[in-house]
Amino acid sequence: MRIPCFAGPILGLGLALALSSVAADEIAIVPNPASIERQEGPPFAFRTSAVVVAAPGDRDAQSAALMLGAMIERQHGIKTVVQKNIPQPHAIMLSRANPALPSEGYRIEVKPEKVTIFASGPAGFFYGSVTLVQMIDKRTIPAVTIDDAPRFRWRGLMLDSARHYQSPAFVKKLIDAMAMNKLNVLHWHLTDDQAWRLEIKKYPKLTSVGAWRVPAGQAPRKDIDPKTGKPRLYGGFYTQAQVREIVAYAAQRAITIVPEIEMPGHATAAIAAYPWLSAIADPPRAVPADWGIYPHAYNLDDKTFRFLEDVLDEVFALFPSPYIHVGGDEVEKSQWKASAAGQARMKAMGTEDPEKLQAYFTERIAKYVASKKRRLVGWDEVLEPGLPKHAVVMSWRGIDGALKAAAQGHDTILAAHPTLYFDSRTSGRPDEPPGRGTVISMKDVYAFEPMPEKLSPLERRHVLGLQGQVWTEHVRTEERVAHMTFPRSAAVAELGWSNPGRRQWRDFLRRVSAQFPRYEAMGFPVADSGFAARATVVPAEAGSQSVELANGFNYGEIRYTLDGSEPTAKSPRYEIPVKVAPGVVLRATTFDGERRISNPRTLATDPAHATRRASQQLKLCSEHIALSLEDDAPLNGPRAAFLVDIQNPCWIYEGADLANVKGITASVGQVPFNYQIGELVKQIHFPKPATPEGELEVRLGCDGDVIARLPLAPAASHMGVTTLPTASIAPRTGRVNLCMRFSQPALEPFWVLDTIELAR
Ligand code: ACM
């Protein structure tokens, strides 16, 4: 039997790598520059300090010189002096003497006696500096000439700060990681049903009310705040001063922050703060904690439009971005249909179709945005007849929105679900943090082509670029945002920047893994899931097991120890399956030569391990709404994550060997069912329970006989994960597919399988 069962470190810890330098003959830049030409001769070597020089009248070059100096000092510990433009021997010069370079392009010439970064503007100087800093190795820079410029002008990442809040300090770290890979747009999703995160001076309740909620679930409901005597509120918001600082921080790194203020749907938090914004008489008065699509939309009366314009005025003042995102996705029209303003508007438009109202709404807002010399960006639902030509369409429902938008003469950005949705798990490993159940590996992202083939040459000009999105319903912590965004966003950076003809997966793996120490130095724990070792345990002769090691990307060398110590580049290299006695602790780490490119993983080879499966190692019976969900308890400390299809909670243990198995045990959890999924909720069915609390049913195949029932009573009053008593089974032989479902009297508590184990 093959048993995948490699336990990882605590979720979200990321890499703890020592900062190691990249060998000079191994230039490792992501995104891959357009051209790197090695030159004859010795490298440029720093003397006691690095001298960076820019012309006195050139403010772009001057500020780039200061940034470059700071990067050299911080990343390489080389003292730096920034000077005005007096001819300097042995200096790094920032020069505009090559004016034909495109605005983000740069040229680097490294000669033994001098380094020059040529650019025509601030972004080019910054990108040249980023590349240069990444080539420094042991106080030298190899003699090269680099010519570089991006393929697309929009290389983005969307951060959802509404569903979960991230601190300003973390947002800056994310900006640092983006800058390192020449990503240039941070699309900041600041408002949604579950929170409003941006201070608006004219409407203070947007944040005093709208930024706070009681999280879903039993544990948060029981977590009473002594100050109020009520459940503690979760949340936070960004003051205007913080936003200005973050916007300036991003601008110094050639990143534009495009704010998103969602309208007309995904508006519940604002409506809870100011109920008169609602199209219905009795809207929610508190910010809700369900995920999914709420029916609440902004009203269509003039007072509500004035509110939205007031909000946008403050947004324009805070964000110099030429683009302003106003959402527009997933708008439920039922409340408009029933409202006086909606009825009046439909009458004026001569329609009875409330779907038509979205076009009216978008056009009105687009006109306002245009009157302030900005361009509206919306999710692809905004693409309706009458959308002003200057509006930009963000294609999220696959690439169809982009195809239609470009055909109609709109600029468009590829933000395509599922490949560019970075709330999906990065791997199927059991140590993967929660997220959408679908696995989108970095390899899947790297294979995405941002220029849809179907577009004509003329239409192609409308593709501004692409971006990854990190929605955060299931990404609760900052560490996990880091894990979900990078290194997948490094793949986005390469797709958006580099010549597609030079795309090469294994070379990308070499270069991207060389970035890991750089992210680590930023305190930004990226995902090593595709590089980390995973184990398959194969029973060998009596009393021992044989362990096969591999990793997701099939890259690098896996080295291991059997004494519990941490593997080094000198530890035995895995080549053939390793025989281990039960109880031995095997640790394995992936290296690329001397470079460690994954965290160590630990495998405890106790006999129970061989037949235990976590939910992530089971097959889901269906994948209607597959999610890896986090427990809501304990409030502090590690929590379990459960892989489940919430529309059909049912798991299959494939090929279970029942020889000598005397019983079945399982650990189970309960998660809040906090999903606005409309009518779909009626399609969730459970087998009839035999006891008041219900049972976990184990069948021989999903349509076969029940072979074990594990009563849920011991878990009913226990938050967190409970191990149920073993249920005996009749002796059997052979391999079967075991199918597990919960029989339960109601939707809540919503039971989920944590692990299942065959007891011998
Ligand atoms: C979206 O995922 N609703 C844009």
Provide a descriptive summary of the structure in words.
The model is unreliable at about 1-25 (pLDDT under 50). The chain has an eight-stranded parallel barrel, surrounded by six helices. Helices cover about 25% and strands about 30% of the residues. It is an alpha/beta fold and about 750 residues long. It starts with a strand and ends with a strand. It is built from 19 helices and 47 strands. It has four domains: about 20-150, Chitobiase, domain 2, CATH 3.30.379.10; about 155-520, Alpha-Beta Barrel (TIM Barrel), CATH 3.20.20.80; about 535-605; about 610-760, Sandwich (Jelly Rolls). A hairpin with a 5-residue loop joins β28 (about 535-540) and β29. Acetamide binds near residues 329, 379 and 396.
Q: Which helices and strands occur, and which strands form pairs?
A:
Layout (H helix, E strand, L loop, with lengths): L2 E2 L30 E4 L5 E2 L4 E5 L4 H18 L3 E4 L8 E4 L10 E6 L2 E6 L2 H14 L4 E2 L2 E5 L5 E7 L7 H13 L4 E5 L1 E2 L2 E2 L8 H4 L3 E2 L4 H5 L1 E2 L4 E2 L2 E2 L4 H13 L3 E8 L4 H6 L17 E2 L9 H17 L4 E5 L6 H5 L1 H10 L7 H15 L3 E5 L12 E4 L4 H8 L4 E3 L9 E2 L9 E5 L2 H5 L10 H4 L2 E8 L7 H8 L2 H10 L7 H9 L2 H6 L11 E7 L5 E7 L5 E5 L16 E3 L4 E8 L2 E2 L4 E4 L7 E3 L4 E2 L5 E5 L10 E5 L4 E8 L5 E9 L3 E2 L18 E6 L5 E6 L1 H4 L5 E2 L3 E2 L6 E9 L6 E10 L1
Parallel strand pairs: 4-5, 4-6, 6-8, 11-12, 11-27, 12-19, 19-21, 20-41, 21-22, 22-23, 23-24, 24-27, 25-26
Antiparallel strand pairs: 1-28, 2-10, 3-9, 7-8, 7-10, 13-14, 15-18, 16-17, 26-37, 28-29, 29-31, 30-32, 32-33, 32-34, 35-47, 36-39, 37-38, 39-46, 40-44, 40-45, 40-47, 42-43, 42-46
Helix pairs in contact: 1-2, 3-6
This protein binds acetamide (ACM).
The site of acetamide has 4 residues, from loops.
